[in-house]
UniProtKB/TrEMBL annotation:
GO MF annotation terms: heme binding; iron ion binding; monooxygenase activity; oxidoreductase activity, acting on paired donors, with incorporation or reduction of molecular oxygen
Required co-factors: heme
Xref: Pfam families: p450
UniProt-recorded name of the protein: CYP27A1 protein
InterPro entries, sorted: CYP11_CYP27_families, Cyt_P450, Cyt_P450_CS, Cyt_P450_E_grp-I, Cyt_P450_sf
Keyword hit for Mitochondrion: no
UniProt family annotation: Belongs to the cytochrome P450 family.
GO BP terms, alphabetized: vitamin D metabolic process
Binding site for heme: C478
SUPFAM superfamilies named among the record's database cross-references: Cytochrome P450
Gene name linked to the record: CYP27A1
Keyword annotations from UniProtKB, A to Z: Heme, Iron, Metal-binding, Monooxygenase, Oxidoreductase
Length: 529
């Protein structure tokens, strides 16, 4: 089984596993064939002139393993450092749709926004998530509860439909703005203390460490309704809750990459050193998160009939009060929020700061907007955030050039026509946003950092829909999106309001840890007068 199969998903076409002909072949030999109804309205009609699946262009690869060798540490596109380059290079060679054979699995990569829209419009009521074999193995071995990330079908739909009432409503999220703003002010205090050290020259090394603390602290005031005390100048105690959470999440991603590179999945049969590290990492952040959640409930929750009373200002109690979500599901959701926010939001802040440091004109323009909207010494609320259009444009442009999540995948429950080719049901389809972001037909001067392209009143605006979806789209859009965006906006406001952000040395690059992470982290902060 190929390494990239585990990176982009595990769904093999049922027709090919059973030795049957593909739907594309059925259509070619039987023009009257129609797909069986799935019970969900289909927006893609059968196209008589569609070409068969086998004619989709793409690299040939080797017998049995296909192109999997290319993604090994010895191949053309090592998974850790050049994974995204493969999509751009192959798109230049084969076009906006191509097919790779990765062991027994077919992967179709698309970079036409119209095709991407078509995929999302046909994903059905219960979209298929990407499954990592290593995570799936852990869940089975530990009998661990499913979270929204790996839950499927009707159970996923039930939990998602209920929880998103809290997670996606702007008014609910905005109520936490002042609390998260306090965390951002503490981050600024840490920067001030670090830059005031003798001979620092304003330079802060190991800044990612403090950004991860900021990210955990920011989500803790929401989920736990308390501060963890992460943002201090001193190193965190090795056994502290905060340090164990951060270390656990970081070790999880680092070992996940190595496990998914395993061609044979030896960890399924033998507890390899990487598997032990992976297992320990998940155990660690789950243990700490559950401990913190139970402490929170013991302090504030007085349940009646097994359910606490709902609260408009307490996220966790509101979550637990829902009759259509079990206690285990609510706790699993909270654990996922606490763990998932550290790397994703933290890395995104790092990429935004680097973009501003390398583009001082954009940074100055953002600073002027901050000064106009945010009164000196006043807390930032959600109403102020809604007025900051250039800030949002900066974040979108950073997502385009330095995506934390560079692509999305789907496995549809029906066959579909993309770019004139029939793609059978259960085929893994990868939507390569990073490729689209580099193409001048969608983004004039794609190599230029230009937030103005996202402003509606700018003459050069007019970005096509479905060219950039950093949080996904549809029913499986990232459920923590609004909290992450609010946290990120507040962090940028407070840092740029107080400091001119600079950069020296070699440019930051991205490293693939399933999500993209910065490979260097040294900023220069000069306090504004």
């Amino acid at each position: 089984m190929s390494l990239l199969q585990r990176v982009v998903g595990q769904r093999e076409s049922l027709f090919r596993v059973c030795g049957a002909r593909s739907l594309a072949a059925l259509r070619t030999t039987n023009p009257g064939y129609r797909p069986q109804s799935t019970g969900v309205a289909e927006s893609v009609a059968y196209e008589t002139d569609a070409r068969p699946f086998d004619e989709i262009p793409g690299p040939k690869g080797l017998p049995l393993i296909g192109t999997a060798w290319d993604y090994t540490p010895f191949g053309r596109f090592p998974l850790k450092t050049k994974f995204l380059e493969s999509f751009r290079e192959r798109t230049k060679t084969y076009g906006s749709i191509y097919r790779e054979k990765l062991g027994p699995m077919d992967l179709v990569v698309i970079s036409d926004p119209k095709d991407i829209e078509r995929v999302f419009r046909n994903e059905g009521r219960y979209p298929e998530p990407v499954q990592f074999n290593s995570i799936k193995t852990y869940v089975e071995l530990k009998d661990a509860p499913c979270t929204l990330a790996n839950q499927t079908g009707k159970d996923w739909y039930r939990v998602r439909s209920s929880i998103q009432k809290d997670m996606m409503r702007p008014k609910t999220v905005g109520a936490y703005a002042s609390l998260q703003d306090d965390v951002c002010r503490d981050l600024v205090d840490v920067i001030r203390a670090l830059t005031e050290k003798e001979d620092s020259g304003g330079q802060v090394h190991d800044f990612t460490n403090y950004v991860y603390r900021w990210a955990l602290e920011s989500i803790s005031v929401v989920v736990l309704d308390k501060r963890l005390g992460c943002l201090t100048l001193d190193d965190l105690e090795p056994g502290s809750d905060a340090q164990m959470m951060i270390d656990g999440v970081n070790d999880f991603f680092r070992s996940l990459v190595k496990l998914e590179q395993s061609a044979v999945g030896l960890y399924k049969y033998i507890r390899t050193p990487t598997w032990r590290k992976f297992e320990k990492a998940i155990d660690q952040f789950r243990l700490v998160a559950n401990k913190l959640l139970k402490e929170k409930l013991a302090d504030t929750c007085k349940p009646e009939d097994g359910k606490p009373a709902a609260s408009d200002t307490d996220f966790m109690l509101s979550l637990l009060s829902r009759k259509d979500v079990t206690f285990e599901e609510a706790m699993g959701m909270a654990v996922g929020l606490l763990a998932g926010a550290i790397d994703t939001t933290g890395n995104t802040l790092m990429f935004n700061l680097f973009s501003l440091a390398k583009n001082p004109e954009a940074q100055e323009k953002l600073y002027q907007e901050i000064m106009e909207v945010v009164p000196a010494g006043q807390p930032v609320d959600d109403k102020m955030l809604n007025k900051m259009h250039y800030l949002r444009a900066v974040v979108k442009e950073t997502h385009r050039l330095y995506p934390t999540v560079a692509n999305n995948t789907r496995s549809l429950d029906r066959d579909i026509v993309l770019s004139g080719y029939v793609v059978p049901a259960k085929t893994i389809i990868l939507m390569a946003y990073d490729v689209i972001s580099s193409l001048p037909e969608y983004y004039p001067e794609p190599e230029v950092f230009k937030p103005e392209r996202w402003l509606r009143d700018d003459e050069s605006s007019g970005v096509q829909p479905f060219t950039l979806l950093p949080f996904g789209y549809g029913p499986r859009m990232c459920i923590g999106r609004r909290f992450a965006e609010q946290e990120l906006h507040l962090g940028l406001i407070r840092i740029v309001q107080n400091y001119n952000v600079g950069w020296t040395g070699e440019d930051m690059k991205q490293e693939n840890r399933m999500i993209q992470a910065p490979d260097r982290e040294s900023f220069v902060f000069c306090e504004r007068a």
